[in-house]
């Protein structure tokens, strides 16, 4: 008799593909009471008649959002285990989608990393291999500390925004206005190291926590085809609320003006642009370093001190000694 693959450990948790559902004797022996189907194919309802059944309709593609379903699939698996029965998680082949949901449950239950859970799962089913997109979602789930409500976590919200931007870019279009996430309307952390001010009118345009970091490209590969790197000439930023009138016009690219003096301070390109350091940034919302000043914020101690010219010292008022100061 063909057996079904059981996740290592004390849990009555099993994984498989569509053909696993045909192994009725093995399912009965495992006391399967709950079946989680993670696929979009038409399903024969007769196969699931004896079980409590949950379906998550997703394709096995990198851009599918399986992360949003983790709290619900975790709860379903837990319900089956708490009831004393066995739980089968399956997709078409028992390789990617089902593995992703089982790994998410193991992470949530044991606090393990995505890599650790995958290694353990492969002891039961060696072909398990979440696609690249699902693996990144599991890694994000790990960084988010496996919350009960992923949609309320800023990291998830930002990831969803990036997914929308990537979809728009792939279609050669600007994102829809209502899908643009203006970061300063979500996060107003006052602990920024510095702010960027318009060089002409001194209007604050951004603070350091809204700067998008990017790595300088290595020029050793195909160096004959690439120009030597230079210092970055731009700050790349998250969308900010003062940019709203321009970014919501639906244009693929354009320029950014200071909202106070209307000086051209930068540009944007939803399809991305290449920085002077050779790195491509997508999407690219940039402020030219030559159009702004970087103003460092003083610490409380420094801001309360007397600022003096270089070499100058504090002289006590007439009639007072330094000891009396």
UniProtKB/TrEMBL annotation:
Enzyme class: hydrolase
Residue stretches making up the Tyrosine specific protein phosphatases domain: 67-125
SUPFAM superfamilies (alphabetical): (Phosphotyrosine protein) phosphatases II
Keyword field contains Transcription regulation: no
EC number in record: 3.1.3.48
Keyword set, alphabetical order: Hydrolase, Protein phosphatase
Active-site residues (renumbered): 91 (phosphocysteine intermediate)
Any one Gene Ontology cellular component term annotated for this protein: nucleus
Single annotated GO MF: protein tyrosine phosphatase activity
Residue stretches making up the Tyrosine-protein phosphatase domain: 3-147
Similarity annotation: Belongs to the protein-tyrosine phosphatase family. Non-receptor class dual specificity subfamily.
UniProt protein name: protein-tyrosine-phosphatase
UniProt source species: Westerdykella ornata
């Amino acid at each position: 008799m063909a057996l079904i693959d059981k996740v290592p450990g004390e849990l009555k948790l099993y994984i498989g593909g569509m053909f696993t559902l045909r192994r009725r004797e093995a399912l009965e022996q495992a006391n399967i009471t709950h079946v989680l189907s993670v696929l979009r194919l038409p399903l024969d309802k007769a196969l699931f008649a004896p079980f409590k059944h949950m379906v998550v309709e997703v394709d096995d593609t990198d851009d599918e959002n399986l992360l949003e379903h983790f709290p619900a699939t975790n709860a379903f698996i837990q319900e089956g285990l708490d009831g004393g029965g066995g739980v089968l998680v399956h997709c078409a082949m028992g390789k990617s989608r089902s593995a992703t949901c089982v790994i998410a449950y193991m992470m949530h239950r044991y606090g393990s990393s995505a890599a650790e859970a995958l290694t353990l799962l492969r002891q039961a089913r060696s072909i398990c291999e979440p696609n690249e997109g699902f693996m990144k979602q599991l890694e994000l789930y790990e960084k988010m500390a496996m919350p009960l409500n992923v949609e309320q976590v800023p990291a998830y919200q930002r990831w969803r925004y990036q997914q929308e931007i990537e979809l728009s870019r792939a279609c050669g279009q600007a994102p829809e206005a209502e899908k643009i996430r203006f970061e300063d309307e979500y996060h107003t952390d006052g602990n920024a190291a510095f702010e960027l001010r318009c060089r002409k009118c001194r209007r604050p345009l951004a603070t350091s926590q809204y700067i998008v970091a990017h790595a300088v490209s290595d020029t050793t590969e195909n160096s004959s085809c690439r120009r030597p790197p230079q210092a970055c000439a731009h700050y790349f930023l998250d969308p900010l609320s003062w940019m709203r009138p321009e970014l919501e016009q639906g244009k693929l690219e354009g320029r950014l003006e200071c909202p106070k003096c209307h000086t051209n301070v930068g540009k944007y390109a939803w399809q991305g642009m290449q920085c002077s350091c050779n790195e491509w940034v997508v999407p690219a919302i940039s402020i030219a370093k030559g159009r702004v000043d970087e103003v460092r914020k003083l610490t409380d101690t420094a801001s309360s001190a007397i600022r003096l010219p270089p070499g100058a010292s504090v002289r006590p008022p007439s009639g007072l000694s330094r000891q009396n100061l």
